[in-house]
Amino acid sequence: MSASTNFQQLTYQLEALEAHAVSQITDASDAATLDHLRVILLGKKGELPAILSQMSKLSETERPLIGQRANLLKEEINSLLKKRLLLMKTAVMNERITREKLDVTAPSIGILSGHRHPLIKTTEDIVDIFCGLGYSVEEGPEIETDYYNFTALNIPQHHPARDMQDTFYLSESSLLRTHTSPVQIRHLEKNPPPTRIIAPGRVYRRDGVDATHSPVFHQVEVLAIDEGLDFSHLRGTVMAFLKQFFGDLPVRFRASYFPFTEPSAEVDVQWRDRWLEVMGCGMVDPAVLEGLGLDPERWSGFAAGLGVERFCMVRHGIDDIRRLYTSDLRFLQQF
Description:
- This protein has eleven helices and nine strands.
- With 335 residues, the chain is α+β, with helices and mostly antiparallel strands.
- It folds into two domains: 99 residues; 216 residues, Bira Bifunctional Protein, Domain 2 (BirA Bifunctional Protein, domain 2, 2-Layer Sandwich).
- The protein has a seven-stranded mixed beta sheet, sandwiched between helices. A two-stranded antiparallel ribbon has the order 2-3.
- Helix 1 packs parallel to helix 4, helix 2 packs antiparallel against helix 4 and helix 5 crosses helix 10.
- The longest helix is centred in the first third of the chain and has 37 residues.
């Protein structure tokens, strides 16, 4: 085949790819589809690089022409993807504005007497701080599947980490969640990054009841996924949160292990002249991102988790976790 014939063939392929890309991007219904199209069209093994791999067959005068045409097509596809994504976000926002209208003329129902439970108040304070840092609140079911509670978080069958989170099984495939991390997986399945969420909620583990343990307790999980996030962003977020919640207490990070983060750390605060562990954190393991179909070369993130009971007990000087569940008015009226 002559060089001129190869040139015409590549020109035709680029024109066909342009028409195909415009049609597919215009018909895309959600952000996940757009990201999938970006990979198919422009990724390392995508359609455009496949066409350009044939440029070796061209003459020295024809290669720059095809290269220039390909660059223009790449810019056009990126522009179409951005415009389509913006239209989607605008439509979602307009729908949300319409759906969440408030009737400001509705009469007040008055303020009920009583006290906020210290656990509820502590959770609200934690949520308020993270919302002030730009995070949104997500919730999920307390009855979970093995996949969301363990497998999707890089904890496969027979992994030793499962022994640390022994829980209550309702059937072979359903259980009471041991942490609120499954909310993060469910969120990322439906919402492509960038994302910043917190997931407060009740969790369950087969712990013996004593002054510091309960089979039912509350957690708040934190997740941030974006391009270029590193451990300094994690440390800065954790330090800002702890300073706002506890005040100017000394804080330290200790290397630790969690199956779904790498590297991982435990976070301690100095309280009553001793170091007290208050939360765990780490960079999201690339295996978790790959399991969700996300490119770990492009996306990175961090996660953190804390027990609401521990934060409540430290803040108020409570010596026994069981006091939070007895509904003793003599205890509750202090708050």
